[in-house]
Every structure is written in structure tokens, then in C-alpha cells.
Amino acid sequence: MEPGFKLNLHDRDQNPCFESHDPSMMYDPVSGMYYSYSTDAALTSVYRQGIPVRRSRDLVHFTFVGHALSDRAVAQGRANGPKYRPTSGFWAPYVEYAEGEYRMYYSATRAFGSSESRIWLAVAQRPEGPFENRGVVMDTWHTPDTEPNAIDAHVADTPEGRKYFIYGSFFGGIYCKELNPATGMPMDPDPRYQGVRIARRPEPSYIDGPEGAAVMYHPGTGFYYLFLSYGWLGDDYDIRVGRSRRIIGPYLDYGGRSLDGEGWGLKLAGSYCFRADDPWAEDGQDWKFAGFRGPGHGAPFYDPVSEQYFFVHHVRDGAESLRRKDGDRDSFRMHYMTVRRMFFLDGWPVFSPQPYAGEKGGTDSLREYMEREGTKATQWEWLRFKERDNRPAMAVCAPLPGDLPPERAVTFSCFDFENSRVGQALTGITTGGETIWGKRI
Length: 441
Prior knowledge:
The protein is mainly beta and 441 residues long. 4% of the residues lie in helices and 41% in strands. It has a six-stranded antiparallel β-sheet. A hairpin with a 6-residue loop joins strand 1 and strand 2 (34-37). It is globular and about 70 Å long. The two termini are 19 Å apart. The relative contact order is 0.12.
């Protein structure tokens, strides 16, 4: 049992989850393999445009297998006309297997922070490509910044078999519009139709966002869940969620506030730091564990093999030696793809505090665990993700907080990343709607 990446190992060939940014994940029913696609990014590797692809048999050990888009598709996606430079990188791909083909939705934006963007649909007969462009699904190149930004695509399915396209960012908010299941292109052919807005940040907002949105339906709860990220991606990025009975909303947070201008959502993960006596990392004289920064821009997915829910996202090494300045902001650049188990408590998703390492066991409620373990069950190191505080959540060794009811937390076996050993983890939601992560001491 071990996680799929090591910190302080900045070599994609030896550490394949390194350099994966804005990752998505799919299970390929044809090959029985898992595939992850991510933003064009390179920190130490030779840069190439065309959507990086990673493959795995177990959601833990990945192999970098190349780039997905054909040369022709790259040339088409780059082209912005004679007045503008070609787009130098593609962002935030989402891939699904539908109607006997693999469909990739990816973003081409003029420049970082620009709302002049397009989302292309490319298709292939193999999950590794080559993918050829079918057409532009959304174009916001000539729209004002108050309208949605064609970036960060995701596709959600309803129980009735309808498909919806999720996209957008802090420019105008997050939008949803229906797709034709047969082609993957918009049901409404009018390129001016933007869809229904389902999220935008409250005004005033103490953090940037939202962006990196994804929607998933859970048949056990009957809710659609809208996951999104707020914050600065280099430091205080986070992952939040709201839920709705309808795919087009309204999505509400834990306190019943609409994500469309009233609330940010239940925070599921943010920058954090547990104690680390023996972190899962390569040794380095100039490196010292200092927690993780900016988990975000991920996607939920259901694994039909293990019948478990997971969430994949990127996270950044928070070591002080890796801190850089981005203008007047701190920025941590070294990023890794992280897979976490996802559980549902009282109708809400929660994540494991630890990267997935192949654990197969089930969960116990905290109440069941306390009844079985007695006084040992009180010995925890834990942290709290606060709704309005995006500074790193620092763990403490203390009795669990009084606002965490034992029936609203689960415990399970995991690999303790910070101490390189098997241990026991806890995740739960307080009565006030704050996420608690814990590890047995």
C-alpha cells in the first residue's frame, strides 16, 4: 500500500503524477484501464502542447503515455486569426466514453486570465488518441467579461439519459446547457445561447472564483452535486460543493444559501498541514515538509470496479523552499495529481484526508469506532476547514471538537502520507457545516 506520487521528486518519468494540473479521470469500459487527462503544463519536463495523458490499472500507479490531440487538432485549436497570437496551451480537459467513441472537451484561451476562450470537442476511437476536433461547443471570444467564460468543461448525466455541459469561471459565473447525447455537441445550435447560470460568487467575496466546476448525480441521495474551486490557485485554492434536486439548480450550500450569489459552498478541502515525522517523499537537503497548498480544480467520478466514489484534483507541495512570488502573492508551483476516496454523510460528500493508496476496506461511523476502541478512539490529530478562512488549516493533537457529532463522521484505514505507514483516518462535518479531517495518533 502506497500513494501514487512522492513529494520532492520532480521528474515526471519517475513520478508520473507530477506536473498534472486540472486533472480529470475516466474509467475505460473497453480496456478496463483508468485514464487521466490534464492541462498542458511542464515544470521540469520538455513542454509540448496537446493534452497530457496518464494511464493506470489501479488508480494508484500511473504511467505517462503522451499527448492526446493530433497535430491537426492542435493547429486548429491554436488558431486565433490574423490579429492574435496562437494559443500556446490547452486547459482543463474532460473525457468520457459515449456512443462508442471517446469525447474530449478542452479549453483554448487567448492568455492566462483572459475571457477570450473557446471549448472544443475532439473525438477518438482510442482513449490515448489521436483526438480530432469535431467542433466548438462554446465560444466567448467576443463577449464582455460580465458574461461567462468558455473554460473548464465538464459533462454531467441525468438518470434519464440526458447530458449537460458545465463550464465557466469567475467571469460571469458557472453555466449549464444541454448536449445532444448522440454527438456531444450543444442541443441548441445557436452559438449565442450560453445556458443557465448555476453559480457565481457572492458580492463582496473575500476570495476569487468560482472556477473548475463539475456536476455529479448520486443515485443513493437523489441529489446533483456541484463541485467548484475558489481562491488563488498557487496558494489558497480550495474545493467546495453545493447540492440540488435539479441539474440546473438551484444549488445550495450546507446552510441553505444559493451558490448563485449567496454562498461559496461547503468547503471540502483547502491548504492544510499535518505533523510529519517521515513524509512520503524523496530525501532532499533543501526540502522540508510544510503541508499541502491549494487542492483544487478536480472532478468526481464513480469507479464501477470497486463501486467506490473518488475525487481527483491537483495539489501543491507547500515546502517553504518551493515558495515563489507571483506579483504580490505567494505561489507554490510544484503540483501533483491526487486521488481521494469520497464518502457521503447525511447527504453530503466528504473526502479522505489522505491520498488514495489502494485501500479496499469500508468505513465505520465515529460512534461505532468509539464504542469498539474505547479511550483509544479519543486520540486524534485533527484540523478544521473554515468557510471564510483560506489560510492553511493546521492540525492539532487534542480531543475531537464538540460540534462534531459521532454519527456525522466516518473512520477507515488509510496510508498516512505524512508518516509513511498504515493508519486510521477520520472525515466528518460539524453541526455548523465545517469539514473535519483527522488521523489517529
